[in-house]
Amino acid sequence: MNQQTAATPELASPTTIVFPEGIPGFEHLKTYRLTYSDTEGGRIYRLRPEDDPEIEFTLVDPQFYALNYVLALDDTEQSLLQAEHPEEILVLLMLWKDTEGTAGGLHANIAGPILINVAKGLGMQKIIGNPRMELSISNA
Asked: Can you tell me where the transmembrane regions are (predicted)?
């Protein structure tokens, strides 16, 4: 299944998302609550594990960074997400804060997008070596 980030599936907030394999580095945490808030800059998502409220991940749509992913899911990933069609998958980027570098600010993990089947409440982090993306430029 090929997935291009174009349409965003509708999402109720809060939504429970199960990551059957966990998120790399947090494999022991499987069930998360996904919420969002709309800001002037776009929709900001928050992913918090139900078993550890001290942890919270901030996520954004790749279009927030003018990126449009072209992803191919293998049979295992497609089965894990129980997705039949690309439009069922919400693609999000996990943000991280550079506290030691001189660049400062928030950065997106473009090599590890979070994929969520909103209808089924299933998620995974797809680690990709060479992300294939298209740059979207707005004339606004």
From this structure: none
Per residue in 73-127, pLDDT tens?
888 999 999 988 888 899 999 998 766 665 667 788 888 999 999 899 999 999 9
- Strand-by-strand arrangement of the 67-72 sheet: 2-4, 67-72, 133-135
- The pTM assigned to this predicted structure is 0.81
Assign domain 2-135 one CATH number from 2.60.120.10, 2.30.290.10, 3.30.565.10, 2.40.50.140.
Answer: 2.30.290.10
DSSP 26: B
Task: Quote the CA–CA distance of 117 and 40 in Å, as a whole number.
Answer: 26
User: 107 and 98 in contact (C-beta within 8 Å)?
Assistant: yes
Close Cβ partners of 43 (under 8 Å, ≥ 6 residues apart): 36, 37, 60, 61
The answer to whether 92 and 112 have CB atoms below 8 angstroms apart is no
Partners of 4 in the beta sheet? 70
Q: Where are the domains of the chain?
A: 2-135
